[in-house]
């Protein structure tokens, strides 16, 4: 089955070559590193801990864990890998002091994996979320590397897909020393793939343990000054938006401007994917609002623009403390939503759409504690007026807005501790 997997992986890779060439900036980034040709990394006798996070979300979540790992196990050399270009750019910035090497994760062929493992020679590998790469996990395990899944989650959708190859998954998971899962539901799903029950532990979600560091505070101050953010013109932050969502949000913003009796708000849009920056720029341009881009040189318009486009990577967290209201994208379409925890940790009122399947357990708890507003399932034409209604209510009712924000922070504080639980489970092995 592993041979067949490698063949299928190769076929898929060849089929995607035109996409690599067409959008090489995104998909061909780190091309040779993915084949195992990594930057220089000299062995010096100290043990090596390899932390892998896929993209921006996992990289942000890994920050408190990486900090504790370097504090608790200073004898280990930390190296960090990512899969996506955006994740790599963020990791290069946030782990520049903690990690001795930041690089791209190898393509999942045996020869590329072996080349990377031979270069790094890790004693321990930590895979954030549930990155089940067949050849990587198998080859790492066979080379006597300890392999852990940390902050693991497994959706029903992924489980159904994995159950089709249950026998193979059982063989892969044999090489996993321990799977530290976010919730009991995630643990139950993983157990259905026949991993030994004594290897599965529940530690909670590491994202609850995140905090804002000094570097982000500096960036927050920069945004506040450059764009003259103040309570006189409350800022609506539309975070991690996808196609169609920007249109709906801009339509809702037009309604708000017609209806708001005082303190006309401003809007900041942060598209999820960098390749859509130009597309969203055109949408905002056609909306008729005065607008600016974060990536452009500073100008007087920055302080008065009604719409701001955040067309940079890794700066969204620094914007959240300035928000009056935060909308989390990927949730008005059947994508499954994005994390609501980043704005919650800085005590902001949060609005999300109906589709939050990727974060079911988290959203459910926030809803139970009246800590998030979730829109119902709506037809496309009904989304803008509903968004406008919700935004207006929050902007005009400070008591409601503050209560929602306080509840969000309370949920965060209640669920902290996943990093410490993770460290405790890792200690016997490290």
Describe the structure in your own words.
This protein has 430 residues and is α/β, with parallel strands linked by helices. 46% of the residues lie in helices and 14% in strands. It has 20 helices and 14 strands. The protein has helices spanning 2-15, 17-22, 24-27, 31-34, 56-72, 85-94, 110-120, 134-142, 156-163, 166-173, 184-191, 214-226, 245-259, 277-287, 316-319, 341-345, 360-368, 383-396, 398-414, 418-426, and strands spanning 48-52, 77-82, 101-104, 124-128, 146-152, 178-181, 200-202, 235-241, 266-271, 291-293, 307-309, 325-328, 350-352, 373-374. Helix 8 (134-142) links the parallel strand 4 and strand 5. Helix 5 runs parallel beside helix 6 (85-94) and helix 7 crosses helix 8 (134-142). The longest helix has 17 residues, at 56-72. The radius of gyration is 22 Å and the shape is globular. The relative contact order is 0.10.
């Amino acid at each position: 089955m592993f041979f067949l997997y490698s063949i299928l992986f190769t076929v898929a890779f060849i089929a995607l070559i035109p996409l690599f060439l067409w959008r090489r900036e995104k998909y061909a980034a780190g091309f040779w590193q993915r084949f195992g040709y990594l930057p220089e990394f000299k062995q010096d006798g100290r043990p090596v801990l390899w932390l892998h996070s896929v993209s921006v979300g996992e990289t942000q979540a890994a920050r408190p864990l990486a900090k504790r790992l370097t504090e608790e196990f200073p004898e280990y050399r930390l190296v960090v890998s990512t899969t996506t270009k955006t994740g790599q750019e963020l990791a290069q910035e946030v782990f520049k002091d903690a990690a001795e090497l930041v690089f791209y994760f190898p393509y999942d062929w045996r020869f590329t994996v072996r080349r990377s493992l031979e270069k790094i020679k890790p004693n321990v590998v930590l895979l954030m979320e549930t990155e089940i790469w067949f050849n990587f996990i198998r080859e790492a395990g066979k080379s006597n590397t300890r392999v852990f899944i940390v902050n693991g989650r497994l959706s029903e959708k992924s489980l159904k897909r994995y159950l089709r190859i249950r026998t193979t998954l059982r063989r892969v998971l044999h090489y996993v020393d321990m799977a530290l899962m976010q919730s009991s539901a995630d643990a139950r799903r993983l157990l259905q793939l026949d991993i030994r029950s004594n290897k599965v532990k529940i530690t909670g979600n590491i994202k609850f343990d995140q905090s804002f560091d000094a570097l982000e505070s500096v960036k927050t101050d920069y945004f506040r000054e450059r764009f003259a953010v103040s309570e006189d013109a409350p800022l609506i932050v539309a975070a991690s938006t996808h196609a169609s969502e920007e249109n709906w949000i801009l339509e809702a913003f037009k309604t708000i401007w017609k209806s708001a009796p005082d303190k006309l708000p401003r809007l900041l849009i942060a598209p999820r994917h960098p390749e859509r920056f130009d597309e969203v720029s055109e949408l905002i341009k056609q909306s008729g609002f005065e607008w600016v881009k974060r990536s452009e040189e500073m100008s007087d318009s920055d302080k008065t623009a009604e719409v701001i486009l955040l067309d940079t990577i890794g700066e969204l967290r620094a914007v959240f403390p300035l928000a009056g209201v935060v909308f989390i994208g990927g949730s008005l379409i059947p994508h499954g939503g994005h994390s609501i925890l980043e704005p919650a940790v800085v005590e902001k009122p949060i609005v999300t759409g109906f589709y939050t399947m990727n974060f079911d357990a988290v959203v459910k708890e926030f809803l139970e504690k009246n800590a998030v507003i979730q829109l119902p399932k709506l037809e496309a034409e009904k989304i803008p007026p509903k968004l406008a209604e919700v935004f207006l209510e929050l902007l005009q009712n400070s008591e409601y807005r503050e209560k929602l924000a306080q509840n969000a922070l309370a949920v965060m504080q209640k669920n902290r501790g996943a990093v410490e639980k993770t460290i405790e489970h890792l200690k016997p092995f490290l």
